[in-house]
Specification:
Helix content: 25-40%
Strand order of the largest sheet: 2-1-15-14-13-3-4
Structural class: alpha/beta
Largest sheet: 7 strands, mixed
Oligomer: single chain
Distance between the termini: 30 Å
Strand content: 15-25%
């Protein structure tokens, strides 16, 4: 299915969306917000901000939520993917960003890609990996599938889905028993080592091989190679974070870096790869429920006072609802109105049928987007916005924390308008006379409130072609890696080891649902396909269910044959694609073609209690031949 650009505002009348003037649409949007806030209080409101839009837009979006409405209920698709990375890194280091630059991957000695099909999902980053390999780096790929990424690796560790913590514990235990842990670093910069060492002791190579499916010899090789390296990069993506215990998964990997000292210096670090162009920036700008812009804790009274004085309004000293909690609040009648910018949860959230039901319970839904997505089709008001990557000025922040300028190249089509203009118009109708003379004015307001961005003027960003945060100085630059303090005589707050337990996938396999479905991306398509489906690709084959040859033979199905895939939540039909890189019992699908095959009707909503991210990577399913109709 191909989507056309939105060019006119739409409002719902007698159950049907019709075109409207901007004046009518903005009045309708504001009136619905006002009605619900007056009836239920500000916490009935939820904002979903856009990880594909600019930092400036996200800054204004979270400010709208906190100042105009008076709640901290703001979140973004960060919750769907890398919220566990932010939670894990913050708990250990106090900062939620990846610790290394892309250049360091080219200059390191060992690269561990854990739960990351970077060749398909992060092709630009993978070019840096290839440069590192060309220079002699050794790469280990830890992934249930032998992906195109794994085919470049020195060693592939094909673990069973959901056994990342046992594998990480076994690597740690082997490092400790071999005497390869970095004792001076551990003593100077960390806490909790003795308890951690005791916690990993049961995970012998033999036990771990039985649980994870990874040969003991491969675990030993990874442990020794990583620990002995002068420099090593540990990289992960959604194979780690889209689990019910995702934050613990992240902490398990961080433990390995603390154990070996592979963090806080050039060439050694931790890198969660972000999937959308500004998901890092959205969080940095405060479009999350627990942080103000500059990733500053909303519970810190000193931080809160600075923003209250700048914005001339009080800020609630409590965390808002994250996306998962917002959906729960809709079901319970506590969240009654939502302002949704550039997100498509109807097709991106786990257990999509439940998501549709919850959104339909809202009294008032406003969607601001560039396409009439399945989510927008449910809205009471649809506002046509600008495409941030070519129709707006501003900045983006990538996975290495690099802030870069983007410049308006073309005008939005028809009556579509800039996102910030739209929000300011709604704010004005709700009693806040906002106006910004361009994105730079927004950015300068952010710089005045965020020490990490203070030194990043537009002029300097253009001159240097991007700057990594933190950048507090107008004249100097910080190192490309974070947490160098850990290597000084006075390292500051120590980094704590995490004491973690193995927790298998929530959706158990049994005779009725004997196959493990894991989901992911392909190179040719983007997320729910709204933006990429309108462009042809010689690589694109549409949605399929990928089976290994052994499972296809056992089921009696051939490539191209349509089959029914059923989980405990729903059922879909898709053609078979036979992939020899899969192991028996493991099947794979993507979320790229939900209009044809709604894969997320199968996935489970079990979520990480710390980060709120769902377990997209581990659903139990069965696959059945379709009965021929005579």
């Amino acid at each position: 299915m191909s989507y056309d650009r939105l060019t006119r505002p739409l409002v719902r009348e007698d159950g049907v969306l019709r075109e409207a003037s901007w004046e009518e649409a903005l009045e309708r949007a504001a009136e619905g917000f006002r009605r619900n806030i007056e009836a239920h209080g500000p916490d009935c409101f939820a904002m979903l901000s856009c990880a594909r839009s600019t930092n400036e837009m996200n800054y204004v979006g979270q400010k709208f939520t906190r100042v105009v409405v008076g709640t901290n209920n703001v979140d973004s698709c960060n919750r769907t993917c890398h919220a566990p990375s932010v939670a894990g890194l913050s708990a250990v280091f106090g900062s939620g960003g990846g610790t290394s630059s892309y250049q360091e991957v080219e200059d390191t000695d060992v690269i561990v890609l854990w739960g990351s099909a970077a060749r398909n999902a992060h092709p630009i980053f993978f070019h840096h990996v290839l440069k590192g390999l060309k220079k002699g780096a050794r790469m280990f790929a830890v992934d249930p599938r032998r992906t195109g990424t794994a085919q470049w690796a020195h060693r592939w560790l094909g673990l069973n889905v959901g056994t990342d913590i046992p594998l990480a514990h076994a690597v740690a235990r082997e490092i400790i028993h071999a005497g390869l842990h970095n004792r001076p670093f551990i003593e100077r910069a960390t806490v909790g080592f003795e308890e951690f060492a005791a916690s990993v002791e049961p995970w012998t190579l033999t036990v771990t091989e039985q649980v994870t499916g990874v040969p003991a010899e491969a675990i030993r090789e990874l442990a020794h190679t990583y620990a002995r390296a002068d420099r090593a990069q540990l990289v992960w993506t959604l194979g780690i974070t889209e689990h019910h215990n995702a934050t613990d998964n992240v902490r398990a990997l961080i433990n390995l870096s603390l154990l070996t000292g592979h963090v806080g210096r050039y060439g050694s670090g931790l890198s969660p790869l972000r999937g959308q162009n500004n998901v890092q920036g959205g969080g940095d700008m405060g479009a999350i429920p627990n942080r103000l812009p500059g990733f500053q804790d909303i519970l810190d009274p000193t931080v809160r006072t600075r923003f209250e004085q700048a914005w001339n309004i009080g800020i609630k000293p409590q965390y808002g609802l994250n996306l998962t909690q917002m959906l729960e609040g809709m079901a319970e009648g506590e969240v009654t109105t939502c302002y949704l910018i550039g997100e498509n949860p109807v097709q991106s959230e786990a257990d999509s049928l439940a998501c549709v039901k919850r959104l339909s319970m809202l009294d008032h839904l406003v969607v601001q987007d560039i396409f009439l997505t399945k989510t927008a089709q449910m809205a009471d008001v649809v506002l046509p916005a600008s495409a941030a990557w070519c129709e707006a000025d501003g900045t983006f922040t990538n996975s290495e924390r690099r802030v870069q300028r983007v410049r308006k190249a073309v005008e939005p089509p028809g009556e579509a308008r800039d996102d910030i203009w739209i929000m300011c118009e709604i704010a004005r109708r709700l009693g806040h006379d906002w106006h910004y003379d361009g994105a730079e004015e927004v950015w300068n307001e952010l710089r005045a409130l965020s020490p990490a961005h203070q030194g990043m003027t537009y002029e300097r960003l253009a001159e240097l072609q991007g700057i990594q945060w933190p950048c507090p100085s107008l004249t100097e630059l910080e190192p490309p890696y974070l947490h160098g303090r850990l290597w000084t005589e006075n390292p500051g707050p120590p980094a704590p080891f995490g004491i973690l337990k193995h927790s298998p996938p929530v959706d158990l396999l049994d005779e009725e649902y004997p196959l493990r479905l894991t989901t992911g991306r392909r190179l040719d398509s983007y997320n729910t396909g709204v933006q990429s489906s309108g462009f042809a690709s010689p690589l694109r084959r549409g949605e399929t269910i990928e089976l290994c040859p052994e499972d296809a033979l056992k089921l009696g199905v051939a490539e191209g044959e349509e089959v029914r895939i059923t989980s405990r939540r729903g059922s879909v039909i898709a053609p078979v694609y036979i992939d020899p890189a899969l192991r028996p019992g493991l099947v794979f699908m993507t979320m790229h073609f939900p209009d044809e095959v709604d894969t997320n009707a199968l996935t489970i909503e079990a979520t990480c209690p710390i980060a709120g991210t769902a377990e997209f990577k581990a659903a139990a399913v069965r696959v059945e031949k379709l009965v021929a109709v005579s």
